[in-house]
Design a protein that fits this description.
The chain has 288 residues and is of the alpha/beta class. The protein folds into 2 domains: 92 residues, no CATH class; 170 residues, Rossmann fold, CATH 3.40.50. The protein is 45% helix and 16% strand. It contains 13 helices and 10 strands. The chain has a 6-stranded mixed beta sheet, sandwiched between helices. A hairpin with a 7-residue loop joins strand 4 and strand 5. Helix 2 packs across helix 7 and helix 11 runs parallel beside helix 13. The longest helix is centred in the middle third of the chain and has 22 residues. The protein is globular. The two termini are 19 Å apart.
């Protein structure tokens, strides 16, 4: 591990210890999270409707709140997009993750609050790096560049002050500026809307950078990798980015793509780490 990565890794030590204890107290952690959410939202329209303040147990919660379809909560979400506060959450929510689903609409729009950005999505990403560094003490993670491939976002047709788009775009737009010091390409490129133009621009701006980590959906990233190889005339990605060491992937199963990645990245030092970061929240990650 290089000096820079070794130094920054110290910031992850405490969290690594916490994660190591999670398996010993799962029930308490889950209940603590539930009660925190109920307490925060107890005075919202939804919280008053179901009397959140009187819920004393997980059993109470299950009995009090019926299972909901997106169509049933859509009117509430629409009001939130239009700028109303204290609907499902106390604050005005400006960001909405576009999620495909099996509802009557082509897409559903899920509120992404500042609290879930910081306390769930970004914390999940932090945990992912923490576990990776714990498991790979030889890593040079922070001394090189990380390529994150994401989607795009746009103003909502209902309210131009609210934005909607792929979760990846919401996360990239709101990233801590310090992360951008090691991330490529620049934000205007990674958030481009038109796919083919985006891929071309990413290739032109990253093929000659010292990239050592990739993050994204396996199918999308495979398209980018092939475009990089076409641009450079190389057969293997390790010929372009010799220090490449890890691919953080999620969104779809990696198995149908694993052999293609092994072929294009023939390195026994390459690591693959699966994450489960959905529009609804960061639910899990690989810990080995």
């Amino acid at each position: 591990m290089d000096i820079l990565t070794q130094t920054i890794s110290l910031l992850f030590r405490h969290r690594q210890t916490e994660i190591g204890r999670f398996g010993q107290d799962i029930d308490h952690i889950q209940r603590k999270q539930l009660y925190a959410l109920l307490s925060t939202a107890r005075k919202t329209e939804w919280g008053l409707k179901y009397d959140y303040k009187s819920i004393r147990s997980y059993s109470d919660f299950c009995q009090r709140l019926p299972l909901q379809t997106y169509d049933e909560i859509k009117p509430y979400v629409t009001r939130m997009i239009n700028g109303e506060r204290n609907i499902l959450w106390p604050s005005v929510v400006r960001w909405y993750a576009k999620s495909s689903g099996t509802t009557n609409d082509k897409s559903k729009f899920l509120p992404v609050t500042p609290e879930i950005l910081k306390g769930c999505h970004y914390k999940g990403g932090f945990d992912c790096v923490a576990i990776y560094l714990r498991n790979n003490p030889e890593s040079r993670f922070f001394s090189k560049k990380g390529l994150i491939l994401g989607g795009s976002h746009s103003p909502s047709p209902l309210n131009s002050e609210a934005h909607q788009g792929d979760l990846s775009a919401v996360l990239l737009q709101n990233l801590n500026p310090l992360v951008n010091l090691i991330r490529v390409p620049k934000k205007p490129i990674i958030l481009m809307d038109e796919w083919e133009s985006k891929i071309k621009a990413i290739v032109e701006n990253t093929w000659n950078k010292d990239v050592n980590s990739l993050s994204g959906v396996p199918s999308w990233m495979l398209v980018l990798i092939k475009a990089v190889l076409k641009k450079t005339g190389r057969e293997y990605l390790t010929d372009v980015w010799p220090n490449l060491e890890v691919f953080f992937h999620g969104g779809i199963s990696f198995e149908p793509y694993r052999e293609q990645y092994k072929t294009l990245i023939p390195s026994n030092k390459m690591h693959y780490m699966e994450t489960y970061n959905a529009s609804e929240g960061f639910f899990g990650l690989q810990d080995d």
